[in-house]
TrEMBL record:
One function term, GO molecular function aspect: RNA binding
Cellular-component GO terms for this entry: cytosol
Transmembrane stretches, start-end: none
NCBIfam families to which the protein is assigned, alphabetical: rRNA_methyl_3
One GO term of the biological process aspect: RNA processing
PANTHER family found in the cross-reference section: 23S RRNA (GUANOSINE-2'-O-)-METHYLTRANSFERASE RLMB
Protein's name according to its UniProt entry: tRNA/rRNA methyltransferase
Stretches the record annotates as Disordered: 1-80
Family, as annotated: Belongs to the class IV-like SAM-binding methyltransferase superfamily. RNA methyltransferase TrmH family.
Every RNA 2-O ribose methyltransferase substrate binding domain range: 81-157
Length: 322
């Protein structure tokens, strides 16, 4: 009851009752005081602009900071991380132009790790020791075995550069165009075949196509460093432009109208290779001057795209040597 604290013998404990209060004690006045200028959107942690700024800063981190794309994918035109001891060693053996080798502190040493470090040192690649948690962050899935190799984005040539390369060497152009090829291993194998049989370059569409990733580098066995790969904004338009310059456009298809045995490959030529499933797209097929088929024995209906390209390129190289 009110007033019991004043009765005789009662002891009031400090802080148990605040007693009668007059006014707000200045709480409202302090609540109305100015807190300064409103922070910029980028400085407010939960604002969308702040999240975008953090993402941009991570993307610009030369050490590849930030969340990595899902396994097997990479940011468009951005550096790529090759993870795992075998893939890293294979890339270094193939001469992939890497920029940094990441090694986790305390990683168990073996022959592959030693070779990766030795080759990186010989190639002048930066060797960075990082914590395992940092390497986990760079790899997103943690499947790195204590090692990762950073590969810069590939520098694509312009389609016109491929014809210019043949002209500089005073040779008849021999080019390969890939249509609907989505497997980077096929792309790497084609690059290797073109380099082996004296071709002057490969052109791929800018969209819906495999790009020159570390997988393609590795499959090409380093040929991607010696042979230019161009990107065409519109493959059909590029092929028509080459036709106007005297280059014959020849497609590859199991149901082609021209047998490879009857084909004259001594003229300037671009061989267009389609995917195993879809084959040549309609517009590209209509652009071709001829569609080749490879004679085969037995019940095999078709060859892998890169194998078919290698067979045709080998035959053309044979004709040009005669």
């Amino acid at each position: 009851m009110a007033g019991n604290s004043q009765r005789r013998g009662a002891i009031r404990k400090g802080g148990t009752k605040k007693g009668q209060v007059v006014g707000s004690g200045g709480q409202r006045r302090r609540g109305l005081e100015a807190r300064g200028a409103t922070p910029k959107a980028e400085d407010r942690p939960y604002h969308p602009a702040a999240r975008r700024a953090r993402a941009a800063a991570k993307a610009a981190d030369p050490r590849g900071g930030g969340r990595r794309p899902a396994a097997g994918r990479k940011a468009e035109d951005g550096p790529e991380m090759v993870l795992g001891r075998n893939p890293v060693v294979e890339c270094l053996r193939a001469g992939v132009p890497a920029t940094a080798l990441y090694v986790a502190l305390g990683a168990e040493s073996d022959e592959r790790l030693k070779e990766a470090v030795q080759r990186s040192a010989e190639m002048g690649i930066s060797i960075l020791e990082v914590s395992r948690s940092e390497l986990d962050r760079l790899s997103a899935n943690g499947m790195h075995q204590g090692i990762g190799l950073q590969v810069p984005p590939y520098r694509y040539a312009h389609p016109d550069d491929l014809l210019a390369r043949a002209a500089e060497n005073h040779e008849r152009p021999l080019l390969v165009a890939l249509d609907n090829i989505s497997d980077p291993r096929n792309l790497g194998a084609v690059i290797r075949s073109v380099a082996a049989f004296g071709g002057h370059g490969v052109v791929i569409p800018q969209r819906r196509s495999a790009s020159v990733t570390a997988v393609a580098w590795r499959t090409s066995a380093g040929a991607a460093a010696r042979l230019p790969v161009a990107r065409a904004t519109n493959l059909t338009r590029t092929l028509k432009d080459w036709q106007s310059r005297g280059v014959r456009v020849v497609g590859l298809d199991a149901g082609g109208d021209t047998n490879l045995d009857d084909f004259d490959g001594t003229d300037p030529v671009v061989v267009v290779v389609g995917s195993e499933g879809k084959g040549l797209s309609r517009l590209v097929r209509e652009t071709c001057d001829a569609v080749l088929s490879i004679p085969m024995a037995g019940d095999v209906e078709s060859l892998n795209a890169s194998v078919a390209a290698g067979v045709v390129l080998a035959d053309i190289a044979r004709q040009r040597r005669v």
